[in-house]
Design goal:
The protein is globular and about 45 Å long. It has nine helices and eight strands. The chain is of the alpha/beta class and 253 residues long. The strands form two sheets. The chain has a five-stranded parallel sheet with strand order 4-5-6-7-8. Strands 1-2-3 form a three-stranded parallel sheet. Bound molecules: zinc ion (2 copies). One zinc ion (ZN) binds next to loops.
């Protein structure tokens, strides 16, 4: 059994064939799906998919750093009211993203800090998105040491040193399709990391693993990530599946 700790199966990309996508994932042994939020435009679709598969799909709530714009205060108020209303799997995905646009960096920091406070308030893990801002994100998380903040650095793609800093801060590394990309360097880093610090993710429909790179990603492709981790760490696929499942259950409860 595998758990996809990060998949956007509620997006329009899957609107026409979600049933088949879920069946294919099930046939491959992917039994649980954690759905990260992006912003309020997607909330209805996010909650509808969870509602359709209540034993398999689990929604997170949060404001993605790329959705932190002029209206961020309104967006954040919606996130907070949802967190008060019902239980979510995590606060996510939240974090810092300086890849497309740095002009909202201050607002991203403000939104990130606020949502971490809410995660602590509601006793939830955080699922962190970071792009061109990994060290900055690690530094933010370090400020909360001793406060029992836990979670996942989703789509981790940093150095060994950064991986160790993340583990030291009590966080897990979310590993997806990037590990199958030849020039990413991620395989060499993960080789040195114990499996007890790793969770699986597809980030579908994005970051499709080899051999389907360039096409739409889906949760059934998790096996290619498992195979690659098993290969670089020289352990069995079964061990990768069992350990990463246990890790995801520890985080999400
Ligand atoms: Zn992300
Ligand atoms: Zn994502």
């Amino acid at each position: 059994m595998m758990i996809d700790s990060h998949t956007h199966l509620y997006l329009n990309d899957f609107q026409s064939d979600i049933k088949e996508v879920m069946l294919r994932a099930d046939a491959e042994g992917v039994k649980k799906f954690y759905l990260p939020a992006i912003d309020s435009k997607e909330t209805d679709n996010l909650l509808a998919l969870e509602n359709k598969y209540p034993d398999k799909c689990f929604a997170m709530m949060g404001l993605h750093p790329c959705s932190v714009k002029e209206n961020y205060k309104h967006e954040l108020s919606l996130v907070y009211s949802w967190l008060q209303k019902r239980k979510f799997a995590a606060v996510g995905e939240i974090g810092l993203d300086f890849y497309w646009d740095k002009s909202f960096a201050d607002l991203q920091y403000e939104s990130f800090h606020l949502q971490i406070e809410w995660a602590l308030q509601f006793h939830l893990p955080v699922v962190l998105h970071t792009r061109e801002a990994l060290q900055e994100t690690i530094d933010v998380v370090k400020d909360y040491q001793g406060k029992n903040l836990k979670g996942i650095f989703h789509c981790f793609n940093g150095s060994l040193q950064q991986a160790l800093e993340i583990i030291d801060a009590g966080f897990y590394l979310g590993i997806g399709g990037v590990i199958t990309y030849k020039n990413s360097g991620l395989a060499e880093v993960i080789k040195e990391i114990e499996i007890k610090h790793i969770v699986l993710e597809t980030d579908a429909p994005y970051l499709t693993p080899v051999p389907f790179r360039g096409k739409r990603n889906e949760s059934g492709y998790l096996k290619y990530i498992v195979q690659k981790i098993a290969e670089v760490k020289n352990i069995s696929s079964e061990e990768v599946e069992a350990e990463t499942t246990q890790n995801a259950q520890l985080i999400f409860g």
